[in-house]
Amino acid sequence: MATLQDIGVSAAINILSALAFLIAFAILRLQPVNDRVYFPKWYLKGLRASPIHSKFVNLDYRMYLRFLKWMLDALRMPEPELIEHAGLDSVVYIRIYLLGLKIFVPIAVLAFAVLVPVNWTGQWLENSHDYTFSDIDKLSISNIPSGSSRYWVHIAVAYLCTFWVYYMLYEEYKTTTTMRLEFIAASDRRPDQFTVLVRNVPPDPDESVSEHVEHFFCVNHPDHYLLHQVVYNANKLANLVDKKKSLQNWLIYYQNKYERNPSKKPTTKTGFGGLWGARVDAIDYYSKEIEKLTEKMIDDFIQEAAERERVLSDPEALLPAAFVSFKSRWGAAVCAQTQQSNNPTIWLTEWAPEPSDVYWNNLAIPYVELNIRRLLMAVALFFLIFFFMVPISIVQSVANIDGIEKVFPFLKNLVERSVLFDACSSSLVVIQDMNVMFLNGWLLLNINIFILHLLLVPYPQDVVRSFIQGYLPGIILKVFLLLIPVVIMIMSKIEGFTSFSSLERRSAAKYYLFILVNVFLGNIIAGTAFEQLHKFLHQSPTEFPKTIGVAIPMKATFFITYVMVDGWASVAAEVLRLVPFIIFHIKNTFLVKTEQDREQAMDPGFLDFPTYEPRMQLYFLLGFVYCLVAPILLPFIIVFFAFAYLVFRHQIINVYDRKYESSAAFWPDVHRRIIIGLFISQLVLLGLLSTRNVKKTTPLLIALPVLTIWFHRFCKGRFESAFTRFPLQEAMMKDTLERATDPTLNVRTYLRDAYVHPIFKGGNEYCSPPGDEEEGIPLVSTKRTSQKGSKVTSLASSEADSPRK
Amino acid sequence: MATLQDIGVSAAINILSALAFLIAFAILRLQPVNDRVYFPKWYLKGLRASPIHSKFVNLDYRMYLRFLKWMLDALRMPEPELIEHAGLDSVVYIRIYLLGLKIFVPIAVLAFAVLVPVNWTGQWLENSHDYTFSDIDKLSISNIPSGSSRYWVHIAVAYLCTFWVYYMLYEEYKTTTTMRLEFIAASDRRPDQFTVLVRNVPPDPDESVSEHVEHFFCVNHPDHYLLHQVVYNANKLANLVDKKKSLQNWLIYYQNKYERNPSKKPTTKTGFGGLWGARVDAIDYYSKEIEKLTEKMIDDFIQEAAERERVLSDPEALLPAAFVSFKSRWGAAVCAQTQQSNNPTIWLTEWAPEPSDVYWNNLAIPYVELNIRRLLMAVALFFLIFFFMVPISIVQSVANIDGIEKVFPFLKNLVERSVLFDACSSSLVVIQDMNVMFLNGWLLLNINIFILHLLLVPYPQDVVRSFIQGYLPGIILKVFLLLIPVVIMIMSKIEGFTSFSSLERRSAAKYYLFILVNVFLGNIIAGTAFEQLHKFLHQSPTEFPKTIGVAIPMKATFFITYVMVDGWASVAAEVLRLVPFIIFHIKNTFLVKTEQDREQAMDPGFLDFPTYEPRMQLYFLLGFVYCLVAPILLPFIIVFFAFAYLVFRHQIINVYDRKYESSAAFWPDVHRRIIIGLFISQLVLLGLLSTRNVKKTTPLLIALPVLTIWFHRFCKGRFESAFTRFPLQEAMMKDTLERATDPTLNVRTYLRDAYVHPIFKGGNEYCSPPGDEEEGIPLVSTKRTSQKGSKVTSLASSEADSPRK
């Protein structure tokens, strides 16, 4: 096992590289040219139109002196203002990091004050000469002899910690619930407050979907029903619009290139992506290309208009789903929470998501199909988690012909040099060994190692060879790992959830399972997830926690490195925004002509909840598991939480855009996953102590997971419905208030176009073909589309209005 | 293992004794004196006032000739009429037996047509000389050699059976749902359709509970709220009333005795139950006793009146719960299904149970206390199930000083005699061995054995000795087993459910777990439940199904005996109604003076759902498990289902009273438990085949439980909400219909007194003290109580009316 010195060196390297990233960030962010990379939110909000300093490079040295000032800035904004600025989702998200601090700082203090002395003086390792051990092991529970009464101290601390976690979780759930309710209460009038999504409208031989919906709700909610909007099957249309957008981008690119170099004759190939095909190198080619494209666009435009016409007039394009709006929030709350029909698989009502949150493709999946999809996806998830390594191993064995065994001599070569190399190589071993590593940390680490490698290896050809041999398998693993969140999101979409927010919540749940099995268990029990599964099935239920419990103390150093490499580094990389930085500058160079183009080239990004949150949960789990076993891990986790809190607070203030606002609907999931972490840690402790010959403690230890399950149920009953239902009292209060403050409000007008498919709404935006036709067609087309647009809305509303008295 | 001959003999004995019971029943039921024992329902319904034949003993020989005619009678009543007559709960309950037939008859046909020939010709047991085997084993899967391709036949049959079960369960769920909805739709106006039970009304410093409820619902359901009834803490009052009722019974008993034997001086003792204390033997004692009692009753009456006064006027006696009634079913449906307040632990609304279904004691348990109670009861249930044998063993070891080992020589003594004895003794071993046996079957069996014993053992003192030694441990076990449903019901009451129907459903769930562990697992894996738990924890998850799978074929004969002894016999005993028979005749002799008294002495009993249903589930489980392993068990189970269907159909027509009507709300539980049985059988099959060296079949076998879980979720989503929610469409339909057919209906008057505590309602019934005071006080008291009674109702309604416009 590694010594304290090893860890110190490793920490120093990681801290230095994180610091390097931070300095790079501090410098880059002050350059006006990067203003749109690092402060896009202010542009989006319309608070900033151009960089504050107009020069290309900022030369004001005073600003460089205070290069960590952004951290203070990030902390300065008070929470209510932050909610106003960034939305409740983001604020509650960063509060998870804060919760990590609140939980682990007191636990760390307790552990260092009580457990570390108890462990240190255990003297088991010194007395037994069978083991090699380091100072770190002396701090851990491994130093307590089997059957010692010192374990009672650990159990007492376990109880204290557990109750502290319960208390913090309870308080946090309460606070979040209050924040959510206040946010909802304080929020302005929004269409989703009045609207219910109705799915699985049963077919009726005599009536269209629209009529059927109308009649049903007129009968069953006579005093509250207002209007409804049917859902059109606009998938084909959406594809056409996407295609047109892509063509437009290419057109602009060619035009720019052509304008900048009218004399030079750049070469290109006619094949896919300009990569192969016949080589043509004339300006004519571009002109023709542009002409062709423009012609194509006009064709497409006509095609699209025809398609749009068809969709709106064709009753077959109507999906058996509708957005039904009510006269009051009370009416909507009632309809969303009750069952409408005898058959609970038809007339399904639920709160309408925000218009921007609707995932339109999934609105019309029949009940049986939905169930089969979920079954298939559950099976697929199982295979994804447990057989994830199979395709990777195949690709790796094909890609690396020399075989992985040659990697190890290369490492040995490194090891001989110095302490620095020692640390590097151990990090490299971590990479190879770790099964799952995440891009940012991995990038950072590889850059480090590569630079050190270049500096210290005398023969450059060695570098290349060893790079290929040493890094290729890692890169292949990385590519697969990067695909995981994407694959998981696709799976969630297949499962048929109807809003982006629920899709992201489901994806996060899946990804958490993946990380739990492949990172946590995968690193504790060596071998692939499938091997673990095999082991798990062929060991007794008490044996499995034992296996983990015994392995846990030995893996402390590994996880310390992991926290630094994955946790710290990925946060540092997050703030640097390397990928958006590069992409923005590429776009800025090749595509941007006007200020509006620059606006579009800007990519603020979103808070990637389904990827970040499960990763963060791993740190909670590690904290819970190691707080009793090897408290030395805790400071590293605390640093992670503090650093991440700072960075993400900065990011949500200055960078990220809001995709949707779910009012912290994800909190029950977050809470549950933290509870799962706690539960696992308690099982592990039970397993560990059952190997230490202290049988008397078992009943006390069994009580802990039972209590945890109970606590979970208690909190669920106490708070969860605030996240899934909308209390009538609230609804009534808001209705009454609104009636008093705005008696002339016409809800019908307000809601009429709220839930029209974005394709029909955004008609004007995409329909004017650029280039030569700027004078003629655009006018007509705009006219036509706006006619279409209004036709859509008038159609939707007339359908809702006409048969009503 | 037992041979076919053994089982034949055992079956013959059991069939004969069941037949004896049936003949006894056939004779007894025709005696006019027993009419109130065997046909109480007709009296309750007012369709019969006195026995058809007025003679004491029925001598019409023609009726005896058709002694099995009741079976045909029981089948004759068509289902709609039966629902009308006995309620939906009872009808759906007997349909579970019918479902058993529908599931297992085709499976048995398939198994005997396919599996039995395949097993019979497997020739494994004949070729291997290591095992002793019988013909029964040759019919079972044990006869197939390891690794044989014949197992594919079993897997194919498993799939066929599984899909058949799915189909039948799905159809049955659908039918039950339809029946429930039709029943609810067809049912008359009932107060619970308009009423919602509101619990956890938060305390308010300025308002009483009643005002608070009123204001809250006036504000939040302004168009629908009608009135409410608060719940009084009448527990003390209820105790007083109970005490008085018991005193009255004793009084009548003494009066009767005194009147019948005015000359004779019977002796009694003054102590508890007349069992000890000073012996007094004079008529004076009774007179004094009566006087004392009467005085006491008057005192009590005054005390009760005072208590009643106090309860109604004391605001502290108001519980934070209320029954809130709405103007329409729609309003009630909305309120019951929605969340009222931000805080989901206050203002909890749910459908009000029927007035007769309300369990008044549990209406006011705060949220935290409720959670703690459930936690404690979950832990208690765990200990009840797994440590159930501990107190029994202690009592047994104390009660049987000679030690259980002496039982076995006695058995050996029996074994030597004849084949009959052989069968008897094997039955006795079953009893001792079985861990859990149920009273009726046990009674029957013991009577058999005892009679045989008397006939065949030469020395009577042997009989007594061996009876004590052989039966005492069994009796002790029996007493504990009889207490189990009672204990479980008390546990459910502590858990805080608010209606008898939910209490019974919860008790059934607990009892099912108990039977599953202690009867099913307990008999397959020898040893106490705790030992099984230990084994389970220390075996791998794949090992446990293997252990069971291997043991299953060996236990076939045991379970065949079990089905006959427990299943057939208990059903036969059910129809004979031995205990109510005895009790009725005792009461009839000692307590009955008037026809009204006789009415009260009649005990129709109820369908004991929480005891019968879990036991029946065991037969489903056995059927699923053995249909592939040893199909020989199936005919016995089919006979059980058919016989039970007949008997219970007869009982619900002629005997049982309805305690409440939950409209088959228990069906989702029944369905789930059948699914659990299927799931267990699939795991067992997986375990069994994994020991038979046919690895290729594993994926096919794993797919089965996954499919079963999916099927459960599918059905749950498809049907369950029909049992927990009330669709608005239905409510609206009934409201509209009622408004059309009965426009003058005053719902307020109809609902005013619906949910008054039965103590306040039944005031007159218990308040007139009998005896000497018949002229004076009763009038006053009746007046006083009726005043009180009307005061209660006027109070309740005035509280509801006064602040309304």
What descriptors fit this protein?
homodimer, 805 residues, mainly alpha, four-stranded antiparallel sheet, transmembrane (chains A, B), transport (chains A, B), calcium-activated cation channel activity (chains A, B), ion transport (chains A, B)
Shape of chain A: globular
Number of helices of chain A: 36
Query: Most extensive interface: pair and counts?
Result: A-B, 47 and 47 residues
Assign the structural class of chain A, choosing from mainly alpha, mainly beta, alpha/beta, alpha+beta, or little secondary structure: mainly alpha
Q: How large is the radius of gyration of chain A? A: 30 Å
What would the average pLDDT of chain A be, to the nearest integer?
Answer: 73
Q: What's the β-strand tally of chain A? A: 6
Largest sheet: spatial strand order of chain A: 2-5-1-6
Distance between the termini of chain A: 81 Å
Major sheet size, sense and barrel closure of chain A? 4 strands, antiparallel
Oligomer: homodimer
Low-pLDDT windows of residues of chain A: 400-408, 410-441, 763-805
Strand content of chain A: under 5%
Summarize the amount of helix of chain A as a percent range.
Answer: 55-70%
